[in-house]
Amino acid sequence: MKTQKIDAKMTHLRLILWLSILAFGVFTVNAQTTYPYNFSYDGNPLVRNHGAADPDVHVWDDTIWMYCSQDHKSNTSDSYAAMDGYHAFSSSDMINWTDHGEILHSRDVNWGVDGYMWAPGAARKDGKYYLYYPHIDKSGAWRIGIATSNVPQGPFTDIGAPMEGIGGIDPAIFIDDDGAAYIYNNSAIVAKLKPNMLELAESPRNIDYAPENIKENDLLDFKEGSYMFKRNGIYYYSYTNWKNDEYQGFYAMGDNPYGPFEWQGAMAPNPQGAQDHHSVIEFQGQWYYFYHIAVGSYPKIKDGQSRIACYDRLYYNNDGSIQPVVHTYGPTNLLTMTALNGSVTFNPPGRSYRPGAKVKLTATGDLGYAFSAWGGDLSGSENPTTITMDTDKNVTASFVSVPIYELTTNAAHGSIVLAPPGGVYSSGTVVTLTPVDDFGFNFSSWSGDLSGSQSPATIIMDSDKSVTANFVQVPTYTVTANAVNGSIELDPAGGVYETGTDVMARALPDFGYKFSGWSGDLYGIENPAKITMDSDKNIRAAFAYVGGGTVVFATNCGGSAYKSDDGVNFSADTNFNGGGTYKTGDAISRTTDDVLYQSERFGGTFGYIIPLPNGDYEVTLMFAEIFHGSAGSRVFNVEIEGDEILSDFDIWSKAGKNTAYNETISVSISDGTLNISFSTIQDNAKISAIKVVTPDDNTGINQR
């Protein structure tokens, strides 16, 4: 008992110390660190003697190796310009760590500039160690360098030139069970490496990591930090979205390193003050999630060095999906659960909690079992219940055998959704039934062991049950839409509707036309216009020609197909040669077609090759600076048909950030191909969208 009191007191004192650190930034380190530097982990953050960002973590020979970038105070508008090298850390027990010091510096890379050594990725193959790192070359383009060593702690030696065929930032290396190695980067692409680990064995492929509605959601889509790991034959592709204030780590599951993957959602919350940049490892039978934090009230070890590596436990569900990681800071207490013939969910999820945290426990019995009582460090039978994590806790959930009953459902002209699903339940289970009607029918009532018309309804499983959902037929009507030189969009889509449905009809003119009015069962010029479906409807949209030529090619660079407000059908990105893609969800000013400026194709050098008949054209190049926030950050040249039409071009200087800016150029083609090329001067060249028009005979060529 005396020992327990002493332990509790020490835990309390540690907590007070950590809260003092968080509140006042009190932290003492040696003025000069000598490497290798040994330290112990007693709660996040992991590293205490200097900043350590972008942890790339591996387990080799029962030892954890972590490679981190280094933040320093920048003298430029780019707060990450001064990142100039990498450190290696190791541990054989996750408690006692060694910082082996600097393993590579920008001064050691003769093909690059000073600084700009961003998030690295390491690998080991055939006894040799590889460090892949993003770095700006002397032309201003982001490239991926490779340095090698015979030992994991380095130092690493650059091989003398960047990789060919792939650039960008955030390289991550995955080596599969068969020894094949793959490289991923911030463009959500993947390529297999040759056995020498220095060259691509194939052209990079785009990764299908999520459905389009996720990719188009600025808070859920890929932003950076590609990562790949594997467990029980399942490949996990993960990434970060640093715009989401609640969650930043997201993941998808697949059956091979290329995908396609099935998007699963969030795996980790927003790390305080920083963008999530993570690694996932298994060590001694447990899984861990490494990341970094940067909090304003948190002690900065050195001015400009505020992003600090941390780690927390990671847990899987029975189906292989991941429970959201719980971030911890300072000392933590462990919650251990035993649940035979059932399961217990924790809210918040995880197993490690800050002292004093309250955790909600919900017990659920397996089929044929019901929760009966808590044991160990928790008593009673309240379910759900709450436990306070003032020390380590060991809890048991007990379950007793109960009868099993079957719920049979019938639903002609519809269906019934059961929650929980399954149709077979333990005695006492409350089941919610929700009727779903087929098109042309409405739910009317329940019969059998359930009565009334409540929707949804509940039933208690105290015996076998049989329930029928009854539906009645309702009239349906058709909208026939006619349009020449434009189209009509119906919302909701489909064209056939149940009686009483309100349908919005929107007239969309083709390029060179404008909407002039409705006829038939709609009239006037209101657009969009509402139709209430009480009979079959026939509507027509009229469009008037206003000139402007004929669009012969239009593509949304780096993005998906889109019809602009002036009626141009832009294809998904096509006819490109080289480059990567990036997009944002930020609003774009000076346009109503934000979609065309929110994506881009970028690179050091890339181009578009567009087959077209010989003749005269107007080429509109569409730009928006969606990444940088100052003049001079991105400068590049553009050539069309071998002629430089934009030189030292700086989008930000022309329009600022997130603002549409177009350049229209007259071009003559004599070889059956329109060639557009981009080359960088500073950072990467880019293009948002391209439109090519054959002008009207009497319009002449537009000026820029």
Sum this structure up briefly:
By secondary structure, this protein is mainly β.
Structure description:
The model is unreliable at about 1-30 and about 700-704 (pLDDT under 50). This protein is mostly beta strands. The chain starts with a helix and ends in a 10-residue tail after the last strand. Strands 44-45-43-56-50-53 form a six-stranded mixed sheet. A five-stranded antiparallel sheet has the order 1-5-4-3-2, with no helix packed on it. A five-stranded antiparallel sheet has the order 46-49-54-51-52, with no helix packed on it. It has four helices and 56 strands. The longest helix has 23 residues, at about 1-25. The protein is flat, with a radius of gyration of 31 Å. Strand 2 (about 55-60) and strand 3 form a beta hairpin. It folds into five domains: about 1-330, Tachylectin-2, Chain A (5 Propeller); about 340-400; about 405-475; about 475-545, Immunoglobulin-like (Sandwich), CATH 2.60.40; about 550-695, Galactose-binding lectin (Jelly Rolls).
The major β-sheet equals:
6 strands, mixed
Number of helices: 4
Number of strands: 56
Tell me the name of the CATH class of the largest domain: Mainly Beta
Secondary structure elements and pairings:
Elements: H1 2-24, E1 37-40, E2 53-60, E3 63-69, E4 85-91, E5 96-105, E6 121-125, E7 128-136, E8 142-149, E9 157-158, E10 172-175, E11 181-184, E12 189-192, E13 205-206, H2 212-215, E14 224-231, E15 234-240, E16 247-254, E17 262-269, E18 279-283, E19 286-293, E20 308-316, E21 322-323, E22 333-339, E23 342-347, E24 352-353, E25 357-365, E26 369-376, E27 385-389, E28 393-401, E29 404-410, E30 414-419, E31 424-426, E32 430-437, E33 441-448, E34 457-460, E35 465-473, E36 476-483, E37 486-491, E38 496-498, E39 502-509, E40 513-520, E41 529-532, E42 537-545, E43 550-556, E44 562-563, E45 569-572, E46 576-577, E47 580-583, H3 595-598, E48 599-603, E49 605-611, E50 615-623, E51 635-640, E52 643-649, H4 651-655, E53 661-669, E54 673-682, E55 685-687, E56 689-694
Parallel strand pairs: 22-28, 29-35, 36-42, 43-45
Antiparallel strand pairs: 1-5, 2-3, 3-4, 4-5, 6-7, 7-8, 8-9, 10-11, 11-12, 12-13, 14-15, 15-16, 16-17, 18-19, 19-20, 20-21, 22-24, 23-25, 25-27, 26-28, 29-31, 30-32, 32-34, 33-35, 36-38, 37-39, 39-41, 40-42, 43-56, 44-45, 46-49, 47-48, 48-55, 49-54, 50-53, 50-56, 51-52, 51-54
